[in-house]
Design goal:
Structural class: mainly alpha
Helix content: 40-55%
Strand content: 5-15%
Order of helices and strands: HEHEHH
Number of domains: 1
Largest sheet: 2 strands, parallel
Radius of gyration: 17 Å
Number of helices: 4
Length: 127
């Protein structure tokens, strides 16, 4: 389940985009304690996340690739993000960038995730 989405221009660094997403999560999901991130998010973002909430602190954990790994290796927790992208790709609207406004792109991602979750809930109720 996607908790928050931010679509931004390509000229904005991923670390800065992460701050936009985390700002949205800051007050909405107070039970959220741990966030996994790729190695690209290391650095000053770690300290920024620690200071994000005074109470119920957040922890950003960087999932690093092993130094001894050669070739393609599935990273722990990283597959969750890739799986989510695959779910989104099943919706034709996400096959190409049809939207002109970032807000519309965000809304379409929420619609795709709502569709996915409602199908799963309906399947559960049939059992």
């Amino acid at each position: 389940m996607v908790l928050a989405v931010v679509v931004h221009a390509a000229n904005l660094q991923d670390r800065d985009g992460a701050k936009l997403v985390l700002e949205r999560l800051r007050r909405k999901f107070s039970r959220l304690r741990l966030i996994w991130a790729d190695g690209a998010y290391a650095g000053e973002l770690l300290a920024w996340v620690r200071e994000l909430r005074v109470w119920r602190k957040l922890r950003l954990e960087i999932v690093k690739r092993s130094d001894t790994a050669r070739g393609f290796v599935v990273q722990p927790k990283r597959w969750i993000v890739e799986r989510t992208f695959a779910w989104l790709a099943r919706h034709r609207r996400h096959a190409k960038d049809y939207e002109r406004n970032p807000e519309t792109s965000e809304a379409m991602i929420y619609v795709a995730m709502i569709s996915l979750m409602s199908r799963r809930l309906a399947r559960q109720n049939r059992l």
